[in-house]
Write a structure and sequence with these properties.
- This protein has 163 residues and is of the alpha+beta class.
- It contains four helices and seven strands.
- The chain has helices spanning 9-20, 23-43, 49-84, 146-159, and strands at residues 2-5, 92-97, 100-105, 108-113, 119-122, 126-132, 135-140.
- The strands form two sheets. A four-stranded antiparallel sheet has the order 1-2-3-4. Strands 5-6-7 form a three-stranded antiparallel sheet, with helices on one face.
- Strand 5 (119-122) and strand 6 (126-132) form a beta hairpin.
- It starts with a strand and ends with a helix.
Length: 163
Protein backbone atom coordinates (compact mmCIF):
# COMPACT_ATOMS: atom_id res chain seq x y z
CA UNK A 1 0.00 0.00 0.00
CA UNK A 2 1.28 3.47 -0.90
CA UNK A 3 0.18 6.71 0.75
CA UNK A 4 1.49 10.12 -0.30
CA UNK A 5 0.81 13.29 1.67
CA UNK A 6 2.16 16.59 2.89
CA UNK A 7 1.31 17.79 6.41
CA UNK A 8 0.44 21.43 6.90
CA UNK A 9 1.59 23.26 10.04
CA UNK A 10 -2.03 23.30 11.27
CA UNK A 11 -2.37 19.55 10.80
CA UNK A 12 0.87 18.95 12.67
CA UNK A 13 -0.39 21.14 15.54
CA UNK A 14 -3.68 19.19 15.60
CA UNK A 15 -1.75 15.90 15.74
CA UNK A 16 0.43 17.20 18.59
CA UNK A 17 -2.69 18.32 20.48
CA UNK A 18 -4.19 14.86 19.92
CA UNK A 19 -0.97 13.33 21.27
CA UNK A 20 -1.16 15.52 24.38
CA UNK A 21 -4.73 14.46 25.18
CA UNK A 22 -3.57 12.14 27.89
CA UNK A 23 -4.90 11.29 31.30
CA UNK A 24 -1.66 12.39 32.94
CA UNK A 25 -2.22 15.99 31.83
CA UNK A 26 -5.65 16.00 33.49
CA UNK A 27 -4.17 14.48 36.64
CA UNK A 28 -1.48 17.18 36.75
CA UNK A 29 -4.12 19.88 36.33
CA UNK A 30 -6.23 18.34 39.12
CA UNK A 31 -3.20 18.28 41.43
CA UNK A 32 -2.45 21.92 40.57
CA UNK A 33 -6.06 22.92 41.33
CA UNK A 34 -5.99 20.97 44.61
CA UNK A 35 -2.76 22.69 45.66
CA UNK A 36 -4.15 26.11 44.80
CA UNK A 37 -7.35 25.37 46.74
CA UNK A 38 -5.29 24.13 49.69
CA UNK A 39 -3.20 27.28 49.73
CA UNK A 40 -6.36 29.40 49.60
CA UNK A 41 -7.92 27.44 52.47
CA UNK A 42 -4.80 27.54 54.63
CA UNK A 43 -3.79 31.11 53.89
CA UNK A 44 -7.19 32.79 54.14
CA UNK A 45 -8.56 34.60 57.13
CA UNK A 46 -12.23 33.70 56.77
CA UNK A 47 -13.32 36.60 58.97
CA UNK A 48 -12.03 39.06 56.38
CA UNK A 49 -14.16 39.15 53.21
CA UNK A 50 -11.52 41.07 51.28
CA UNK A 51 -8.89 38.37 51.98
CA UNK A 52 -11.30 35.64 50.86
CA UNK A 53 -12.02 37.39 47.56
CA UNK A 54 -8.36 38.25 46.94
CA UNK A 55 -7.14 34.69 47.57
CA UNK A 56 -9.89 33.05 45.49
CA UNK A 57 -9.20 35.42 42.58
CA UNK A 58 -5.44 34.80 42.87
CA UNK A 59 -6.00 31.04 42.75
CA UNK A 60 -8.41 31.35 39.79
CA UNK A 61 -6.01 33.50 37.77
CA UNK A 62 -2.99 31.33 38.57
CA UNK A 63 -4.84 28.22 37.36
CA UNK A 64 -6.03 30.06 34.24
CA UNK A 65 -2.51 31.32 33.56
CA UNK A 66 -1.12 27.80 33.95
CA UNK A 67 -3.63 26.37 31.46
CA UNK A 68 -3.02 29.18 28.95
CA UNK A 69 0.76 28.96 29.33
CA UNK A 70 0.86 25.20 28.75
CA UNK A 71 -1.38 25.55 25.69
CA UNK A 72 0.68 28.39 24.20
CA UNK A 73 3.98 26.65 24.92
CA UNK A 74 2.79 23.45 23.26
CA UNK A 75 1.65 25.34 20.14
CA UNK A 76 4.94 27.28 19.96
CA UNK A 77 7.01 24.11 20.29
CA UNK A 78 4.96 22.32 17.62
CA UNK A 79 5.38 25.18 15.14
CA UNK A 80 9.09 25.38 15.88
CA UNK A 81 9.57 21.63 15.39
CA UNK A 82 7.63 21.78 12.10
CA UNK A 83 9.77 24.64 10.75
CA UNK A 84 13.07 23.02 11.77
CA UNK A 85 12.16 19.51 10.63
CA UNK A 86 13.94 17.97 7.68
CA UNK A 87 10.89 15.92 6.72
CA UNK A 88 7.61 17.34 8.07
CA UNK A 89 7.08 20.26 5.63
CA UNK A 90 7.72 18.09 2.56
CA UNK A 91 5.74 15.51 0.65
CA UNK A 92 6.14 12.04 2.13
CA UNK A 93 5.32 8.65 0.66
CA UNK A 94 4.66 5.70 2.94
CA UNK A 95 4.93 2.15 1.70
CA UNK A 96 3.16 -0.05 4.23
CA UNK A 97 3.68 -3.80 4.20
CA UNK A 98 4.13 -6.75 6.52
CA UNK A 99 7.79 -5.75 6.99
CA UNK A 100 6.90 -2.31 8.35
CA UNK A 101 6.60 1.20 7.04
CA UNK A 102 9.03 2.61 4.52
CA UNK A 103 9.25 6.40 4.54
CA UNK A 104 10.29 8.16 1.35
CA UNK A 105 10.56 11.91 1.64
CA UNK A 106 12.89 14.55 0.24
CA UNK A 107 15.47 12.03 -0.90
CA UNK A 108 15.54 10.17 2.41
CA UNK A 109 14.42 6.57 2.58
CA UNK A 110 14.20 4.47 5.68
CA UNK A 111 12.22 1.44 6.70
CA UNK A 112 10.77 1.26 10.18
CA UNK A 113 9.95 -2.35 11.12
CA UNK A 114 6.74 -3.03 13.01
CA UNK A 115 8.82 -4.05 16.02
CA UNK A 116 10.07 -0.44 16.35
CA UNK A 117 6.54 0.81 17.02
CA UNK A 118 5.19 0.52 20.54
CA UNK A 119 1.53 1.54 20.14
CA UNK A 120 -0.90 3.50 18.00
CA UNK A 121 -3.98 5.63 18.39
CA UNK A 122 -6.53 7.15 16.08
CA UNK A 123 -9.01 10.00 16.00
CA UNK A 124 -11.17 11.35 13.17
CA UNK A 125 -8.17 13.02 11.47
CA UNK A 126 -5.01 11.01 12.18
CA UNK A 127 -3.30 7.79 13.03
CA UNK A 128 -0.39 8.27 15.43
CA UNK A 129 2.16 5.46 15.39
CA UNK A 130 4.50 5.66 18.39
CA UNK A 131 8.16 4.68 18.34
CA UNK A 132 8.60 5.99 21.91
CA UNK A 133 6.31 7.71 24.42
CA UNK A 134 7.10 11.14 22.89
CA UNK A 135 7.93 10.30 19.28
CA UNK A 136 5.31 9.37 16.75
CA UNK A 137 4.65 9.22 13.04
CA UNK A 138 1.52 10.90 11.72
CA UNK A 139 -0.66 9.42 9.01
CA UNK A 140 -3.54 11.72 8.03
CA UNK A 141 -6.79 9.91 7.31
CA UNK A 142 -7.74 12.46 4.61
CA UNK A 143 -5.23 10.92 2.17
CA UNK A 144 -6.59 7.36 2.40
CA UNK A 145 -9.63 5.71 0.88
CA UNK A 146 -11.74 3.14 2.73
CA UNK A 147 -9.77 0.17 1.39
CA UNK A 148 -6.45 1.69 2.51
CA UNK A 149 -7.88 2.47 5.95
CA UNK A 150 -9.02 -1.15 6.37
CA UNK A 151 -5.65 -2.44 5.20
CA UNK A 152 -3.74 -0.13 7.56
CA UNK A 153 -5.96 -1.10 10.49
CA UNK A 154 -5.40 -4.79 9.70
CA UNK A 155 -1.62 -4.26 9.85
CA UNK A 156 -1.92 -2.22 13.05
CA UNK A 157 -4.10 -4.78 14.79
CA UNK A 158 -1.83 -7.60 13.70
CA UNK A 159 1.47 -6.02 14.75
CA UNK A 160 0.76 -3.34 17.41
CA UNK A 161 -1.24 -2.85 20.60
CA UNK A 162 -3.67 0.07 20.59
CA UNK A 163 -3.31 2.68 23.31
Amino acid sequence: MHITYKLTPEEYLQAVNFHHQQKSRKVKLAIYIALAAGIVLIGTDFTNNRAIITNVLAAFFSISFYMLFVSMLSAYQARSIYRKSATLPYETTLRISGKGIRLDGKGNEKTIPWSAFSKWKKNENFYLLYTSPRQFNIIPIRVMNDIQIKELEAYLQKYLPRS
